[in-house]
């Protein structure tokens, strides 16, 4: 990589620039879309994202290539603008992109920390065991896991929710590959659909909310279209589920919520309310409210550690094997690969936008195709490419379209990833968790049914929210 960077640096210094922008004043951006420098940036991004798409095959974490791509793209931009005495413009642009990332980073870090704290307190394991031992049939479990995925993902995020519900399916579906596969498809669709009508359900909805395109309360206008997106394929798939009931797990192996687990759930809900209030009433970044909520959790973590120490002193035999609660362990177990991937996406796509490519794409998609076809296409692209760069590109373009169209693109970017197993973080995660039972081809067989739900949700949105 050093060798390639050195060659790139020499090439940029030696080759002349024939730029479309003749004015090098600080008020004019250079148009590099038709120059080989712009083409090089596109090639870097495409190569890096190709490695991201094949993450499962080559076992290279997705953050690595996109981090390198972001750095190289801004290296190209920095050298070009420095040569034209316009370094300040490049600096302002990259700082703007970095600030956007910083706000989302701290928001997501707090949310991930709370989810990890609930996992450590066995909140979700207790929910899983409760479902397993309630005596539900396979069809009832198919619906229960789907419905819970739909209603938990708006709070806990679609990835975490999908993993929790998949653990239930794996626990009860031992030896029933078809049940596991169909249930995993249902969970992915439900989690993505549930995440589409909440700012906390998906990174794309969080970006839309923080950007101010859709207010917090306005997301709930997408509830019915999202519900339709989940119900249409679920109703059809249920006919392929077997009859009968799974065996209950052995008595004594039930998970119990550890001390403070339910209080942490309450603190998480309070933190969400705090973040929403900061944004809606004080017009401050919601990340500030989330960091306040992290303070709540850290204080409560201090209480749990003191309680553990007291119990150890009083009865060392019964608690000696229990590890004390440590908030920094929860922070350390955040999805750092996702957070760094998110950094690379924002900086790389922001760089392509600064070069002028997003303006070109916006003119074609929203100018020639029109807002509705363009926003439907965004959802389809989200099933092939991750929805994060697609949505960030749309937000960077900021096309002039109605509020109903912003709601539409929020919906399609959220649920479009369900069309393929690789189209969402939930699908990719479940392919690993239910390896051999839930695969790309298993999901692809039901893509026409999922596409029917995708089309139905858009139609319902037009009826309810209009254009």
TrEMBL record:
Residues 51-414 form the Citrate transporter-like domain. Pfam families: CitMHS. The keyword Zinc-finger does not apply. Keywords: Antiport, Ion transport, Membrane, Signal, Sodium, Sodium transport, Transmembrane, Transmembrane helix, Transport. InterPro entries: Cit_transptr-like_dom (IPR004680), NhaD-like (IPR045016). It is found in: Membrane. Its main location: membrane. Residues 1-21 form the signal peptide. It comes from the Bacteria. The chain crosses the membrane at residues 37-54, 66-84, 104-120, 141-172, 219-241, 262-281, 287-304, 340-364, 376-395, 407-434, 446-464. It is a multi-pass membrane protein. NCBIfam families: NhaD_1. Belongs to the NhaD Na(+)/H(+) (TC 2.A.62) antiporter family. This is Sodium:proton antiporter NhaD. It comes from Kangiella aquimarina. The lineage of its organism: Bacteria, Pseudomonadati, Pseudomonadota, Gammaproteobacteria, Kangiellales. The gene is nhaD.
């Amino acid at each position: 990589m050093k060798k390639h960077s050195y060659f790139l640096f020499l090439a940029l210094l030696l080759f002349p620039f024939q730029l479309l922008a003749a004015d090098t004043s600080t008020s004019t951006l250079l148009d590099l879309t038709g120059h080989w420098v712009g083409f090089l940036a596109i090639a870097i991004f495409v190569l890096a994202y190709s490695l991201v798409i094949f993450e499962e095959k080559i076992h290279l974490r997705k953050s690595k290539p996109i981090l390198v791509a972001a750095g190289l793209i801004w290296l190209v931009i920095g050298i070009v603008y420095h040569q034209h005495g316009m370094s300040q413009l490049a600096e302002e642009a990259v700082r703007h992109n970095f600030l956007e990332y910083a706000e989302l980073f701290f928001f997501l870090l707090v949310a991930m920390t709370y989810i990890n704290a609930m996992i450590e307190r066995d909140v979700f394991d207790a929910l899983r065991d409760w479902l397993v031992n309630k005596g539900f049939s396979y069809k009832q479990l198919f619906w229960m896991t789907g419905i819970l995925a739909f209603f938990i993902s708006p709070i806990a995020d679609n990835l975490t929710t999908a993993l929790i519900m998949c653990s239930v399916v794996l626990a009860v579906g031992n030896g029933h590959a078809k049940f596991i596969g169909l249930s995993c498809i249902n969970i992915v669709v439900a989690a993505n659909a549930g995440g589409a009508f909440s700012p906390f359900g998906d990174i794309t909805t969080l970006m839309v909310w923080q950007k101010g395109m859709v207010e917090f309360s306005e997301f709930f206008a997408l509830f019915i279209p999202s519900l339709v997106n989940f119900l249409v394929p679920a109703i059809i798939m249920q006919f392929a589920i077997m009859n009968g009931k799974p065996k209950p797990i052995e008595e004594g192996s039930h998970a119990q919520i550890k001390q403070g687990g339910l209080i942490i759930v309450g603190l998480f809900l309070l933190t969400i309310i705090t973040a929403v209030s900061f944004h809606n009433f004080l017009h401050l970044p919601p990340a500030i409210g989330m960091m306040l909520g992290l303070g709540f959790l850290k204080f409560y973590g201090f209480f749990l550690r003191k309680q553990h120490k007291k119990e150890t002193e009083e009865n060392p035999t019964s608690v000696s094997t229990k590890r004390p609660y440590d908030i920094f362990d929860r922070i350390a177990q955040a999805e750092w690969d996702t957070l760094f991937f998110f950094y690379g996406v924002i900086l790389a796509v922001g760089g392509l936008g600064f070069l002028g490519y997003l303006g070109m794409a916006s003119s074609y998609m929203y100018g020639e195709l029109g807002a509705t076809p363009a926003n439907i296409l965004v959802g389809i692209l989200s099933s092939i490419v991750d929805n994060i760069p697609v949505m960030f590109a749309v937000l960077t373009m900021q096309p002039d379209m109605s509020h109903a169209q912003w709601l539409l693109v929020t919906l399609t970017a959220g649920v479009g990833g369900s069309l393929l197993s690789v189209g969402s973080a939930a699908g990719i995660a479940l392919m690993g968790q239910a390896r051999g039972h839930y695969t790309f081809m298993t999901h692809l067989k039901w893509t026409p049914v999922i596409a029917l739900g995708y089309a139905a949700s858009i139609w319902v949105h037009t009826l309810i929210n209009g254009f």
